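User: Quick one: structure for sequence A, then sequence B.

Assistant: Sequence A:
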Amino acid sequence: MDFGIIGPVLAFGGIGFIVAWAVIPLIRKNAAQRGGEQRSFHQTHKTPVPRLGGIALAAAFAVLALASAVLLDWVIIKPTEWVIIFGALAMFALGLWDDIRPLGARIKLVGQILIAVTVYFCGLRIENFTNPFTNIIEPTGLSGFFATVFWLVAMTNLINLIDGIDGLAGGVAFMLMCLLAYVGLNHQDFCFLVSLGMAGALLAFIYHNFPPAKIYMGDGGAYFLGFLIGLLTIQSSHKGTVAAALIAPVFALALPIVDVAWAIVRRGLKGLPIFRPDRHHIHHHLVASGRSHRRTVLILYAFTVAFTLMAFAVFWSQGRLVPILFGFLFLMVLVAARSLGFVQDWFGVGRSLGTTTQLRKETRYALALNRWLELEAERCKTLEELWRGFVFVVWKLGFADVKLALQDGEIAWSAKETPGGEVRRQRHELHVGNVTAIEFTADATALSPQVFEQLAELAAEAWTKSVLRWQTVNQGSIRLEPEWAAPDFAASWEARKGFPLQA
């Protein structure tokens, strides 16, 4: 059916925008405390921000799907398009569940795979592959199963992993929805209408999510958007635009893909789980270099727009320019990495190769202590007890002292023998209760720069997670007092085995 161009853009873009715009204030007003609390050390907002913005996006999608079915007289809606509707909402439910009650990385990954497998057996799958160099279309056969599941799970997690700074994931998803709407322009079917509508919904969301954010999309929104984009690209690939539908998004997401791939390598070298968050993504480097969150997002938008234009070129050329564009893509990634200061991080990881064994060993030890402290938080009746437990962890990791900056003072612990020579210091901003920052000090001869940086970050994360765990168990307020003392650990094991020691 041909509805023209302006009509669908105004109608469905407007529906998506209006629904999201109307629902977001309701979420902000009525968000449960769990939805708005700080969930991890890697969040940097000073005040709680609701994490349930994905509800607005899912609500807009549900209304858009219904409007599309009505407009297309229901019978024109294909079975695979019903799969898109229920598959996307199922993935949203998984993410929303995690926003309300954390599930753990393994459970979430299993859930994502199960939903992707269900989608495949319901008929939505990658059936053909276009060789970008020969432009020959070949059937995927059994490999299509693995390609479909990998594509859907990868897209789901990619959008989630770039959701580390206000406005970034929403902006990238908006550009991808515009690309998908353009891909479906000649067909003007369900995918075209939904892409237009979700672009409108994302505009409304970005208004509230742009720095400083008033709402997050949460895992529910990120999973939903990533999975929906993956579903729409597969559905669009069945219309003779295989290269545009499956290869073009790779161009549009080039910078996030490189960032995530490098994060996996970096975490592997350091002995960290690959899905464990850290503060070493591109946007973290930009903020650490002195740029504001708003300027950082605008810079990343600019690069994403450039990559998205290359994705449009893939579609315009029907894949014929892919080899040439891949060359330009590689050059642009190098330019982006250099201009964003990311090359230094590459060299930093390269320098750490010589200390990889020791670094991985220290990381495993720190993770074990972190786990112990989080379990200990469930047994502590007061925060003062938990503070003594944290000091034990800091002592075992080899730090000379630790300070917690409070809104009305500070609380600190120092080893008996503080280093008299060169020391290393690292400070992390925190916003948990009345704690505003945490600072670690170590003897420069005791810990290498790579090991010290890694252990300081893990120790700061351990404190945040254990305090939040204590709050969940005890339903108490997080408030530390400057006059709290710290245990005085002796060097012998005899003094340690009686832990926890009293101040």
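Sequence B:
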Amino acid sequence: MKHESRRFLLLLAIAGIASAQETPKMKKFLTKPLVIEDQGSFFIGGVPKVTNYATVPPANNPNQAIVPNQITIGQMYVQFEIPERRKPKMPPVIMVHGSSHTAACLESTPDGREGWYPYFVRKGISTYLVDQAGRGRSGFDESVIHEAAAMVRNGDAEKGAAAIPAFGRITDNGAWTNWFGHLIPQGSTILTGTLIQHGDPGDPPSDAAIHGNDYHPAYAFAAVDANVVSRAGAIGPAPSGPNADYALEYYKQLVPNAEVTLPGSTCPTCDPTAIAPANTWTPMDLALLVEKLGGAVVATHSQSGIMGHHMVRILKERGHLDLLKGLITIEGSCSLPNSGLKPEDFDNIPYLALKGDYTATSEVCQTTVDAINARRAAGHGTAKAEYIKLDELKNPVFNGTTHMMMLGTNNLEVADVILNWTDANIPPKSKNGKK
């Protein structure tokens, strides 16, 4: 018996060694040690809501009396790091993710490299990340779903179905076709088509007008999960292939846009005047955060671009526009009328619009930048606006920069473009050329 026990333990040990050899060891994400003075997290904003639908009746007693409860909705999760040595005169930077993402996309890359968050801190900048209100760690309002379900249970199926929020999200293959390549042939689905990268044979000729067809995305496609490739525990039929393209570690970052569970709002000066939940709560919370910090630069990405503009409007309405030290819009909406703004609102706020390589130039961003700079040229304010197109910098390192540029193989080079711009423009130079 003792001999058999020892043999069993030996087999377990051998199996453990084999397993450890098969599993890649964790490597360092940071380029070098990071020295910070402080780090932490907190919530900002939010309002109380009293509802009969915070919870659901137990399954064994669906007719249990409904009682009111209070929940908090609309709050925003914030995490931060303060470097030990801060860059003189540089205010904190607040980074905001886009659709179907959380702040995870700014912390590190899916293939295990340093992200923008620690890199900015390394450069002496106090950096704050947020999960949009209604998304990720900020939570969402489950009561609206429970209320809709109650309508169905009570016999009003049509009204209940209409009350269920429509959750949007970026799918795995949707991320591929938006950022990295195509699903061919045209009109096919993941069950009948094949994913190809930009620059591969079969890349549609129409793409050449945007990015050329002679190089691949600047992205680490080797970062895949072997279990996802093998479809261990998968639900539903297997995609047509290649399987590895449906197994990118990046896909695990994608989450539903649960902010649709929050109420919207109206803005009389905006066009349109009806404001979606996403553009209601996160801008409000961002304005609160800028005020709490006593001033900050805000960098938005994609979906959150218009949120940054609505934040500017809210700060303006509160008389705190001077606290916004700069606005960076990365591949997002630059529209001023949508958020009730005018070029003069940016007389003293440096403004940067930034685009990568695999996206078309935005006429709206160019129009906004030109309008802000026209004010400056006419002697109003000193802040500069700029539209930087990475594909026009003629540096091969930016070839293939995707929409998700904070996660690409050239993510730190892109970060340097932003940092160089902030060094040159924040705070704005006075009319005599001095900061």
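The domain at 17-168+255-435 is CATH 3.40.50.1820 (Rossmann fold). The first helix runs from residue 2 to 22.

User: Thanks, that's what I needed.
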